[in-house]
Design brief:
With 155 residues, the protein is of the alpha/beta class. It is built from 6 helices and 6 strands; from the N terminus they run E-H-H-H-H-E-E-E-E-H-E-H.
């Protein structure tokens, strides 16, 4: 998972360090299962579905393997801004910046290779909220998913 913010490192070590630090600062328990689920999402080069995570946890014996345990880990990771859910794919990607607000997200998703690029566009998010308010609508969260073909697949 990449984003367009120039100051973010997107390698596994950097993302793991940021999440571990955020958990320590916020007093959150980063259990072995939560950590393993996050690692699996970070290590994937495409969005990961919950049942793929469940199968991996079951195969490799890294903890309880019932669907509710994996879903609770995903809920924790999403609630604290460590991962994003791509709604149309019903799949998860890591968040390269867990210290930012998470009521909005904009993603470019390649239809060929399934790579995902998170846009760092506060202006786009603000515009959506402004348009919604003009209609009397209170925005709690929004996700914009744009599907197409990435530069690597086009060349």
């Amino acid at each position: 998972m990449q984003c367009t913010h120039a100051d973010h490192a997107h390698d596994r070590r950097s993302m793991m360090s940021r999440v571990e630090l955020a958990c320590a600062e916020r007093g959150l328990r980063f259990t072995d299962l939560r950590k393993r689920v996050f690692e699996l999402i970070v290590d994937s080069d495409k969005p990961v579905k919950a049942y793929d995570l469940l199968e991996h946890v079951r195969r490799h014996g890294t903890g309880p393997a019932a669907p509710p345990t994996v879903y609770r880990a995903l809920d924790f990771l999403m609630a604290h801004g460590f991962i994003h859910k791509l709604e149309t794919l019903n799949a998860f990607v890591p968040c390269p910046h867990p210290d930012a607000g998470h009521e909005a997200g904009q993603f470019l998703v390649c239809e060929r290779c399934q790579s995902v690029l998170e846009l760092d566009s506060d202006a786009l998010g603000e515009r959506i909220v402004q348009q919604a308010r003009a209609q009397g609508f209170e925005v709690r969260r929004h996700v914009v998913e744009v599907y197409g073909v990435c530069a690597a697949c086009r060349s």
